[in-house]
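WARN retry 2 of 3 for item q-0093 after timeout on previous attempt; input resubmitted unchanged.
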Amino acid sequence: MIENRKEEHINIAENENVTSEHNYWDDIRIIHRALPEINYDEIDTRVRFLNSDFAYPFIISSMTGGTEKAKKINGNLARAAEEFNIGMGVGSMRAVIENRNLEDTFSVINDYKIPAKFANIGAPQLIDQSSRALTSRDIDYIFNLINASYLIVHFNFLQEMVQPEGDRNARGVINRIKELAGSYPVIAKETGNGFSHEDALALKDAGVKAIDVGGLGGTSFAAIEYYRALKIKDEEKMHSGKTFWNWGIPSPASIKYCNVGLPIIGSGGLRNGQDIAKSIIMGATMAGMARNFLKDADTSYDELKNHINNIIRDIKITMFLTSSPNIESLKKAKFILLEPLLSWFEV
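OK item q-0093 returned
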C-alpha cells in the first residue's frame, strides 16, 4: 500500500497543480547594485553545512523512493549530486523498513560519490500508532543502507490529517527526537507548512543539528491528498484537502522564526536560483529544492543537468548584481519586503 501511495504522490506532483495559491518568495525584492565592482568569473558559491562542504548553496531535498519509478528518479538525482558536488536526500524510508525488496530504490544513490546523503523518516512513525513505532534497529538500518551523513526526521502532520490512512497521534515525538539526537546528527524538516519560533526552540533543546523549514509557498501536501481523495471519491478528505491547501507559515518567515543558533535549510516554493539567493539573504545557511527537479529527473539526466546549470547561473547572476563575491557577502545583501509576507515579519 505504501508503494502505491508513493507512486500516486509522484504522478500527482508531476501532473497536477499542487502548489499553494501564493509564492512568498515574490514578496522579497533585492536591492540592485549597478556598480557591483566584482568579477563574475571569480564568484565563490561554496558553502559549508555542519560537517559537509558543497560547491553550491543548495541540496536536492528529500523526494522519493520505494517504487521502480523512484529508483530511476533517485539514480538521476544522485548522478547530478555527484557531478555538481551537492548534497542529496531520499524520500521517506518507512517503505523499505516494511519491505526489504525495495532497498535498491534507495541504495541506488550509493553508486555515486555524493558529498553528503540524507536518510529520512517521518516523525509520526517514531511513536506508537496503528502500526508499531520504529525501533533503534530500524533507524540504524536505513541510516546505513545509504551510508548517510545525516538523518532527516520530517514533520508532515497536516498531510497525515488529510490522507485516508494518516496517523493521528503526535504525543511523544519530541522525546523520541531527543533519543535519536543522542546517536545521529538529526535534521528536523517540515514538509510544506513551516516551523514556528516555539518549534525551533523545542527542536534545538531536543538536540537537532539543523532545521529545514519546508515552509508554505510551494508544494501543498494537502493539495496532493485532495487529488488522492478525489480519485476514490472520499468527500471528507477532499474537503480537508481544500480547506488546508494554503495552511502554514511562509518559507521566508519560517527562516526568520527558526533563527535560534542552528544551521537553517531554506526550502518550500523555491523555483530558481534567485529564490535560493533570497533564502540565504533571509538567513538560511543554504537552500533545498525538491519538486522543482522531479519531472526532469523522471525524463532524462540531460534535462536535469540543464535545469541545475540554469539554477547555478541564476545564483551567480544574483550574487554579481548584489556585489556578493561569496555566500557570506550574499547574506548581507539589502532587500525590501512586500505584503502579504511583510505582515508575517511583524508577528
